[in-house]
Amino acid sequence: MQLTLEIWRQAGPQDKGRFETYQVKASPDMSFLEMLDVLNEDLLAQGKEPVAFDHDCREGICGSCSLVIDGVPHGPKDLTTTCQLHMRSFQEGDRITIEPFRANAFPVHKDLVIDRSAFDRIMQAGGYISVNTGSAPEAHSVPVPKENAEQAMDAAACIGCGACVAACPNAAAMLFTAAKVSQYANLPQGQPERTHRALAMVQQMDAEGFGACTNHYECMGACPKGISVDNIARLNREYLRAESLPELKP
Amino acid sequence: MLNWLARVLRSSIGRKSGMAISGLLLVGFTITHLLGNLTLLQSNAAFNAYAQKLHDLGPLLTVAELGLLALFLFHIVLAIAVSMRNQGARSVGYRAAGGTGQKTIGSRTMRFTALLLLIFLVIHIADFRWKKLVGAEGSEDLAQLVVDRITQPFGMTLYIVAALVLGLHLSHGFKSAFQSLGLRHNKFNRSIECLGWALAIGLALGFAAIPVALVMGAGGAS
Fold it and tell me: Measured between CA atoms, how close is B34 to chain A, in angstroms?
């Protein structure tokens, strides 16, 4: 299939950047990233600079790939990362616009590669959980209600790709932070640092320059792991609970 | 306590919670406002009697009015703060208009409807509150003043449009307030959404119906 690509090119963080148009011949069986690999081989053969983009596992679990494809983070297919998106989702002769995830907290490094270390700093602010080390404890020694375990695991499905930020009209990181707070808030192992975690992560999220949630829920629509905005409500609860407790603040 | 409030209101979630609480209180006020206005459909005398009862509260009314003013200002100032932060969070926008289809007309137009409501509020206060403040206190027929204003073509259009804009604002605002306060659960999400729509439609149609009903002959000086 013959495709026309409009790709954001930016030499470095200081460059203003611009769109450039490319032609590429792809097979419907290729993944989106493989299609870009083909484009890059063409560019290299012509002696041109290949398009820089993030990727790692290419099986939808690492959260490295990004790209806003025709205005949608990770492209048109629901619950799918860019690397798992295949060209059969497009039509012969399509014109596809490819942009980086846009947020001031995610500055562009080069072309489509962005710096998502703001997410790492939010995680770091969350800190540790207190558990006994040593040999593995007996599995049933800490009872966890099934529903709580399910909710924690659903939240833990977040791969930290940043599509929620990219999709949010306010470039808010609420869904990500909510998932990271929820995965512990639901479990007994997360209780000792529960208050501190909610406060510190929200504080770091704000410090990174992400926007505030205005409840459009575009994040949930873009999330390749189907993280629900129920978690954002839980983060709001966790934060308000933490602020109303007379405990040590970070 | 003040330190605590200042810290909470510096955080994005704290600001949204503040907007949610003030917004819900304003919805409560708007409901009582509509119920009061409906007396106009009965007769001018009924409306004047209702107004008189409010005036008889004396200093309590002043306290209530100042509280209401504070509530509006709180909601507006936080909205401006949140909007400015959000505008500044993405300097370079997307070329392709995509989206994942979760936005609604209500959520999309929140800032716009907020601005329209603010403009309306200024006109509305100038129409009725300000005139009374500078005019001869209590000597005029308040009901007639209102009827005259909202039945002339410009006034009628203004008040009907404002009612519909309020409905649009609430179609997102009401359920959004619950989410911002963390009040979300599968058991009552549906009820909150339905209640939000019922309030949005009820308040919009309720306020818009008053000038229409008056023109069609409801109420009257008798």
Answer: 27
Would you say residue A249 lies in a domain? no
Q: Chain B neighbours among A 53-112 (CB < 8 Å)?
A: 68, 70-72, 97, 99, 102-105
- Which CA distances in Å does B188 have to A126, A152, B113, B185, B198? 30, 21, 27, 6, 15
Residue B26 resides in a domain: yes
Q: What DSSP letter does each residue of B189-210 carry, written as one string?
A: HHHHHHHHHHHHHHHHHHHHHH
Indicate whether A250 belongs to any domain: no
Q: Can you tell me the distance from the alpha carbon of A188 to that of A144, in angstroms, rounded to the nearest whole number? A: 7
Q: Assess whether A124 and A202 both reside in one domain.
A: yes
A209 contact B CB<8A: yes
Q: How many distinct structural domains can be found in chain A?
A: 2
Output the average pLDDT for chain B: 92
Chain A positions touching B109 (Cβ under 8 A) are none
Tell me which residues of chain A have a pLDDT lower than 50.
none
Condensed to tens digits (0 to 9), the pLDDT of residues B20-38 reads 999 999 999 999 999 999 9
Report pLDDT for B131.
Answer: 67
pLDDT at B99: 87
- For residue B86, list chain A residues with Cβ-Cβ distance below 8 A: 169-172, 211-212, 214
Note whether A79 and A124 are same-domain residues: no
Contact residues on chain B for A237, CB-CB shorter than 8 A: 181-182
pLDDT for residue A11: 97
Nearest-angstrom CA–CA distance, A81 and A58: 9
> What is the CATH number for A235?
1.10.1060.10
- In contact, B90 and A102? CB cutoff 8 Å: yes
In chain B, how many domains are there?
Answer: 1
Measure in Å the smallest separation between the Cα of A184 and chain B Cα atoms: 17
Query: Please, which residues have CB within 8 angstroms of residue B217's CB and are 6 or more apart in sequence?
Result: none
Residue-wise pLDDT for B161-184, tens only, equals: 999 999 999 999 999 999 999 999
Q: pTM here?
A: 0.95
